[in-house]
Design brief:
The chain has 15 helices and 13 strands. With 357 residues, the protein is an alpha/beta fold. The longest helix is centred in the last third of the chain and has 23 residues.
Length: 357
């Protein structure tokens, strides 16, 4: 981003997620919360606050134990490594758009010598019948809820139950990629332990929808977490302390979860407003979670120039980096959080209409 464009962006209101992240304010708030709650830092993952937080999240999601980790990439690779070692196999299955497949430089293969089979269509959730495509046994199956690359799509509860039942019939442990699991509660209208029922392990993120400092948690049976903790250390992912990250998540979790239904309702209104504009496609419509993809028939350079014009005229910064979809259209991802809650449908509709014009 050139200097002129960066200056323009700094003057505009961000509509994405919870707006511009104010790291100094978050650090100050976290420090105050730690002081009010008499928090002492953990030592390599051992400490009253972090262990209590692990137990609370594990109970909420219906697992025996949890382990706070610095990144989801580490948590998921460790989880799949443990399941493969238990099965005596190096073979795991996952959706074609899994984060492990697309965004981790194939660490699963290079670091852990595991091989993957991609299952199901890229633009739809994995279903039970897609397992018929796999000719050999799997040591584990990774299921992402929701599918980010498809605009946050989710399977129906019936479809998810069928997949869980088929994996159980085949004796395949299911690992849940729950990077955005917190956003799924309103769609399924169920507590999180009910959503996770049938999964052998799960990972959740705290810096996305919860808005905390970077951090994740791996959950599963107690003996599984013991093995995962060993691999966490082997992989260099067990720093001296993770208290700031864990504290920033613990202090915000309940507050953000309470807002998820309102975020979803706002995302649905956003989708309806954009659906009236020719030249835009909203995927999925209506949204399943408080995320949608907006596709438009512009090349990247033209779209950025149009965005800059909208920014100058409306004061709204509509998007950052954008990538073409599989169909060659520009694909914009919107996570609906606090930033969009403060904007009217009319203001957003006018801004996107101007973008297209």
């Amino acid at each position: 981003m050139n200097d002129e464009r960066a200056a323009l962006r700094s003057e505009c209101r961000i509509i994405q997620a919870h707006g511009e992240r104010d790291i100094p304010a978050l650090l100050v708030r976290t420090a105050e919360w730690c002081r009010e709650n008499d928090v002492a830092h953990d030592l390599y993952g051992r400490g009253e606050m972090i262990e209590r937080f692990e137990a609370e999240v594990a109970e909420r999601l219906g697992f025996e134990a949890g382990r706070f980790m610095p990144t989801g990439t580490l948590a998921q690779q460790v989880a799949l490594r443990v399941w493969c070692e238990r099965a005596g196999s190096d073979h795991v299955g996952m959706h074609p758009t899994s984060h492990v497949e697309l965004h981790e430089e194939h660490g699963l293969a290079h670091l852990h010598r595991l091989r993957t089979t991609l299952i199901g269509p890229a633009d739809e959730p994995m279903l039970a019948e897609h397992l018929d495509e796999v000719p050999e046994p799997l040591a584990a199956l990774l299921v992402e809820l929701p599918i980010r690359e498809a605009g946050g799509k989710l399977p129906s509860r019936e479809q998810l139950d069928s997949l869980i039942a088929e994996a159980e019939r085949r004796g395949i442990p299911l690992h849940l990629d729950g990077a955005r699991l917190w956003e799924c509660g309103p769609f399924y209208d169920a507590p999180y332990d009910a959503i996770c029922r049938g999964f052998s392990s799960c990972y959740v993120s705290f810096y996305k929808g919860i808005g905390a400092l970077p951090g994740a948690m791996l959950l599963g049976p107690a003996d599984f977490i013991v093995e995962a903790t060993i691999w966490q250390r082997r992989c260099g992912g067990n720093p001296y302390t993770l208290t700031p990250q864990a504290a920033s998540a613990a202090m915000q979790l309940e507050e953000r979860l309470a807002r998820m239904p309102a975020y979803l309702e706002r995302a649905q209104r956003f989708a309806r407003a954009l659906s009236t504009i020719d030249g835009l496609t909203v995927v999925p419509n209506p949204p399943h979670i408080n995320m949608v993809h907006v596709q438009l028939g512009l090349d990247a350079d033209l779209a950025q120039d149009a965005r800059d014009r909208v920014a100058r005229e409306t004061g709204l910064w509509l998007f950052g980096p954008a990538k073409p979809s599989a169909e060659g259209r520009l694909n914009l991802e919107y996570y609906v959080g606090d930033a969009m809650m403060a904007l009217t449908d009319e203001a957003l509709g006018d801004a996107f209409s101007l973008l297209i014009s």
